[in-house]
Amino acid sequence: MDSKTDTLIGYITHVQSSEFMASVTLDSSGNFPVISLQGEQILAGQIGSYLTIQQGDICILARVNRAGSTTDTPSQPGGWLAMTPLGVLAAEKFHRGIHSFPTPGAQVHLTTQNQLAQLFSSLSAKGVELGHLPSQPAVPVSLDATALFGRHSAILGQSGSGKSWGVTNLLQQAVRTMPNAHVVVLDLHGEYHWVDDIGIEHSAFDDRIAQHLDARRLEIPYWLLTFAELVDLFIDRTEQGASTQIAFFQEVIHSLRRKANADMDPAKISIDTPVYFSLADLYRHTKAANEQNLDFGKRKGTLHGKFDDLLMRMQSRLNDVRYDFLFKPRQRTNSASLSALLRELVGLGQKRSQITIIDLSSIPFDVRPTVSAQIGRLVFEFNYWNPNRSQFPILLVCEEAHVYVPREQQTAFAGTRKSIERIAKEGRKYGLSLAIISQRPHELSETVLAQCANFLCFRITNPDDQAYIRSLVPDGESNLIDTLAALGRGEVMALGEALPIPLRFQMHAPDPKPNSSDTDLHRHWSATSETVDVEIIAKNWQQQCLRG
Description:
Layout: E1 3-4, E2 8-15, E3 20-24, E4 34-37, E5 40-43, E6 50-55, E7 58-70, E8 78-90, E9 93-96, E10 107-110, H1 113-119, E11 127-132, E12 140-144, H2 145-149, E13 153-156, H3 163-177, E14 183-187, E15 193-195, E16 201-203, E17 210-214, H4 215-218, H5 227-234, H6 242-260, H7 279-290, E18 293-294, E19 299-300, H8 308-319, H9 324-327, H10 338-345, E20 355-359, H11 368-384, E21 394-398, H12 414-426, E22 432-438, H13 446-450, E23 454-457, H14 463-470, E24 491-496, E25 503-507, H15 521-526, H16 534-543
Parallel strand pairs: 1-4, 13-22, 13-23, 14-20, 14-21, 17-20, 21-22
Antiparallel strand pairs: 2-3, 2-10, 3-8, 4-5, 6-7, 6-10, 7-8, 8-9, 11-12, 11-25, 15-16, 18-19, 23-24, 24-25
């Protein structure tokens, strides 16, 4: 295969508003040319690569979508390219949109390293560098920090695509660039802070910038739950008597909140006000209504026997030690304890920190969605009532968001879904941005994803997930979704307001790394002996402790 130094590879043959066609001059072997450019050998015309169309004062940047060869004249075979125009390079800067289109005959050149660098020149001072171009590793890729963290973003990719690495790299670079950042991470699987087999603690972030909070020890008490979230925990909405149970709960909980906070103006205490009330009193009221008799036992009350299943569910939850952090708090036993909890959540407690990792891996799986949504709501309310919210923007990172923000509306966690959707629709006005992370975008709430201004997509091979993402991005960028299945590990297709053009790039490896590496199955299965302490496994299960 021949090599040349001239960047000219062909000429424009057809021009449309959304696509250019070009003929390509093949080398002497009948192959697409290889260009020697700034010490690198670059194969021209690769899918996803960038070319410039030059004609007079016009210099347009375009991305290659399709390529092929023609065999109409065997003696002179040629190649062709289909490209999507992206914008104009002028005065050493990139500008979106095209005002003057080229005509057939315009030259098609390989894009130089300097021209590609112009894409990110305006972001050098206020951007975060996340990676580099795969075809030209010397070209760094930076994203606009304000557009990325000041808007909602979705980070999507199947398991093993490098998603956790990407999130860790993103947050590490953000804190390095902006030392006054405020980030809250909902860590459902203990990927960002963990204890190894010999009991040593590890973290994906430096201890000087991050704090780790075990959700059990943090204590996020039941009385901070909204009414809808309490209903999610105790009432089966599919039961025949669910509406009666909900109406009873609404009246009693509202009354108990007012009773337990007699020093407050009762008119300002709503069903959702985050003030203490007694869960034991709620159970007693429910039991009394279920057993009520009238006329000295001659007649049964209107609610007699209506709450049998509800009382069983309540008793089951209240007697389960796994739920003690939620239903039997030791620290958060009065309304005044709310301020201390908020301080810890946003990194303003005894240890000041830019990143707060809330480890939810130790709490029961079926209550994680409720607790996750509750934390999100607490962070939202913090800035909602913060008069200096514009000076204290917060990023909430939602790992495995499809678990508690499902697409289906009729689920057991309708209340949690509603809480996160409210943040997606209103949070940006109050200085709270979301980073929605999921390996199953098809199962995510469309309301939440529709509010995202940026998409960082790792490898996705599932057709349903690809189709769902394609329906959410602008029409001009929907063809990029076809490349998601071909992305390598750690490669990202980025679209949105945080970068000048839709871009495929390789993420930098984080340092330190999260606890998300694949198990070395071959090494473990090839070992001559196994060391499994079954007694420890049984003890951990019985004591509900994930530590070794």
